[in-house]
Design goal:
- The protein is of the alpha/beta class.
- It has a domain at about 50-110 and about 130-160 and about 185-195.
- The chain contains 9 helices and 6 strands; from the N terminus they run H-E-H-E-H-E-E-E-H-E-H-H-H-H-H.
- The longest helix has 15 residues, at about 240-255.
Length: about 260
C-alpha cells in the first residue's frame, strides 16, 4: 500500500510540473503574420490615402481565417481609412456611437447587390468624404448580416458592374467573378477615387501570398461553378449553391443586369 501511495505521489508531482510554452515563430509587427510568410514588402511604398473610408462589417468567422485579405487592406491604407467592426448584426451594443453615425450618414454607401443599388461609377466623388461599407464574409454570411441589420436597408446602395476574375487563386470561389474582400474594396476605391493606383499597388500583397502558398504545396483552385460545369465537382450540389449558380447564369444571360458578384473571402 505504501508503494502505491508513493507512486501516486510521484505521478502528482509530475502532473504539476508546468509544460514548456510552445515556441512561437516571430511575428511581423505590421501584419501580425509569421515573418517567414509576411507580405508587407509588397505593400504600397506609402499607405494610400483615399478621400473617404472603407468600413468593414466583419462576420466573426472571418477573424479565424489564416489567409484572409482584410488585413492587407487595413495596413495598405493610411491610418483611420479602414475601420473594422465585428458582429452578426449592426449596430449592436458592443459598437460605439461612431458606427451608428456612419450608418446614418447620407454620404455613406453600402456595397450590396440589391434591386435599388446603382453602379458605383455613377457616384460623384465631389459629394464629400464618403464611407464605403463592405460586408466581410462569405455570401451566406453577408446575406445574413444584411437581413439582420435593418439600419443597412435605408442606406444608399451601390454595386460593381464588372468584377473580372479573382487573383485569389488558392481559394475555391463559389462562382466565376467572385472576389475577395481586398479585391472588392480595390475595385470600389479605384472607381470612387478615379485612381488606378489602388488597383496597381494594393493587389500586390495578395499576389505574394498566393505565390508563397503555391511554392509550398498549395494548388490553384477553379471555382465551384467551373468544376460543376466540367463534371469535376466531388460533392452533391446543395440548394444554396444551386441558387447561386442560377443567379450567375442570369447575370451572364442578361448583360444589362450589373448585379455585383458578392466577394467570398
Amino acid at each position: 500500500m505504501a508503494d502505491v501511495m508513493l507512486e501516486l505521489s510521484a505521478w502528482e508531482d509530475l502532473a504539476n510540473i508546468p509544460a514548456d510554452p510552445p515556441r512561437m515563430r516571430p511575428l511581423c509587427s505590421k501584419c501580425c503574420r509569421p515573418v517567414q510568410v509576411c507580405w508587407c514588402a509588397a505593400l504600397p511604398p506609402e499607405p494610400l490615402n483615399p478621400a473617404g473610408r472603407i468600413v468593414l462589417l466583419q462576420h466573426p468567422a472571418e477573424e479565424k481565417r489564416s489567409l484572409r485579405t482584410a488585413p492587407m487592406l487595413s495596413v495598405g491604407l493610411a491610418p483611420g481609412k479602414c475601420l473594422i467592426y465585428k458582429g452578426k448584426r449592426f449596430p449592436n451594443t458592443r459598437h460605439d456611437a461612431e458606427l451608428e453615425a456612419i450608418l446614418a450618414d447620407k454620404r455613406s454607401l453600402l456595397l450590396y447587390p440589391s434591386a435599388s443599388s446603382v453602379p458605383i461609377e455613377q457616384i460623384d466623388p465631389a459629394g464629400g468624404p464618403y464611407n464605403l461599407i463592405l460586408l466581410d464574409g462569405t455570401w451566406p454570411q453577408a446575406k445574413a448580416i444584411y437581413h439582420c441589420s435593418t439600419a443597412l436597408h435605408a442606406m444608399r446602395q451601390v454595386k460593381l458592374v464588372s468584377s473580372g476574375t479573382s487573383s485569389y487563386i488558392i481559394r475555391t470561389q463559389p462562382t466565376e467573378g467572385c472576389l475577395s474582400t481586398l479585391e472588392t474594396a480595390i475595385q470600389a476605391l479605384s472607381a470612387l477615387e478615379r485612381d488606378d493606383r489602388y488597383r496597381e499597388q494594393l493587389l500586390q500583397p495578395l499576389h505574394v501570398l498566393c505565390q508563397y502558398q503555391l511554392a509550398n504545396g498549395a494548388v490553384t483552385h477553379q471555382s465551384k461553378e467551373f468544376l460543376i460545369r466540367h463534371n469535376q465537382y466531388p460533392k452533391l450540389i446543395g440548394r444554396r449553391l444551386n441558387r447561386l449558380l442560377k443567379h450567375a447564369d442570369n447575370f451572364k444571360d442578361d448583360p444589362s443586369d450589373g448585379t455585383e458578384r458578392k466577394h467570398s473571402t
